[in-house]
Amino acid sequence: MSSFRDDVLTNASVNLDALKRWAAALKKNIFTLYLTSKDPRTPLLAKLIVVLTVGYALSPIDLIPDFIPIVGYLDDLLLLPAGIWLAIRLVPDLVWQECKARTESEAFTLPQSFGAAVVVVLFWSVLCLWILSLA
């Protein structure tokens, strides 16, 4: 007879494995999107969404800091997957398949996006200045 503790640890292990697989797939999709942004066959609107999504994913600074309870992780759990979903829908299928095959066959490392970090810092600076001007 298994104990409650064993059941919890087994389920936590399964959930942790699923989470690791999801994170690995997310990283691959981000790199695939990065490759699509470099492809000349990708439409301009798709490139814009891809650049914003990949830039945000690679930014060392979050739009909503993670230390803010619950809300801090919502941007990572909602905005990033939504941006990836939209970008994938806008990229032509042939381009997506070719870039995905390249992602599967090549080793890759994702660079950090300091440009996106600057945009996030500017956003918070403007927001703070606006709030201070209301006071």
Structure description:
The protein is mostly helical. Helix content is 77%, strand content 0%. The protein is globular, with a radius of gyration of 19 Å. The relative contact order is 0.14.
β-strand number: 0
DSSP strand content? under 5%
Q: What is the molecular shape? A: globular
Distance between the termini: 63 Å
Largest sheet: none
Radius of gyration: 19 Å
**Helix and strand composition category:** mainly alpha
Which spans have pLDDT < 50 for at least 5 consecutive residues? none
Tally of discrete structural domains: 1
Q: Give the helix proportion (percent range).
A: over 70%
Average of the residue pLDDT scores = 78
Q: How many helices in DSSP terms? A: 5
Element string (H = helix, E = strand): HHHHH
Please name the defining characteristics of this protein.
135 residues; mainly alpha; 77% helix
Summary, kept brief:
The protein contains 5 helices and no strands.
Q: Helices, strands, pairings?
A:
Elements: H1 4-38, H2 44-58, H3 71-90, H4 93-105, H5 114-134
Helix pairs in contact: 1-2, 1-3, 1-4, 2-3, 2-5
